[in-house]
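Dig into my protein:

:::
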Amino acid sequence: MNVKKGIFILFITLLTSNLINGQANLLNATIPEEIGVKTADQDAADNDKPLPYGFIDDRDILWSKMVWEYIDLNEKINLPFYYPSDTSNIESSRRSLYDTLLRGIKAGDIVDVYDDSYFENRLTLKEVKQSLSKIDTTDAGIEKLNFGEELLEEDVNIRDLISADIEGFKIKGLYYFDKRQGELKYRLLGIAPVSPDVNFIDDQENNDVSELVELFWVWYPGVRDIMHEMKVFNQKNSAFPLSYDLLLNARRFNAIIYREENVYGNRDVSSYIKNNALFQVLESIKVREHIRDYELDMWNY
């Protein structure tokens, strides 16, 4: 009994020490601004950078399958990508995935922004902003225009999309079998926030998931450093926050395949299984199981 008690005390002691040392310079800070500020030696020792992908020769890819998936932010496991939806009373180091992407685009750190998942037509900052806001004139403003009067600020309503309006994310990635390492791998290529159309977002009748639109697509390999810098709340240990890059590359989320690369022009599942959400989910599971079974079949002779 004493042995078990000693092991328990040791475990609690180690856990407590990790929590104390979780925030850099927390106990040595003389002012709040010094909390989280690392010394040069700490930065050199941490080497806090995203793990590089490494080079993959095309000849080493024995088999591959491109898939498009939808991450529903209403699911509990996906909530780290949604919160915090209100940033008025929280530290600047914590932002939702949508706010992280949008802030990088506005700052000019993210330039590989496109209008679809095939990454052909690049979007400018002005075009992105236009798709995220709606400018409408009030009835009183319309009357003023009819009489030739000048509009005031209160005569114009501006509706901007915020993090709370995002319903989910669409991702595009490649499953491939690396014959050198003999295993099935996944590479995330693109990500897009999804929300109702800003022009109809306040319409109470617009509740159909099929009416959700892709706001923009971001080429993911080019934004890994930004995804790594923004930390996510770790429910198991708040002293060691995770990064968006870790969550996405480790696939710590739940997603449904809504499209796969095929001979039919990469058609969506909903295009050949209509008006039946259950069968669409079963088809998504079927596609995923086919990908997983390929790795197992490689070792059957």
Confidence is low (pLDDT under 50) at residues 3-22. The two ends are 52 Å apart (CA to CA). The first strand starts at residue 61 and ends at 72. Residues 147 and 215 are 37 Å apart (CA to CA).
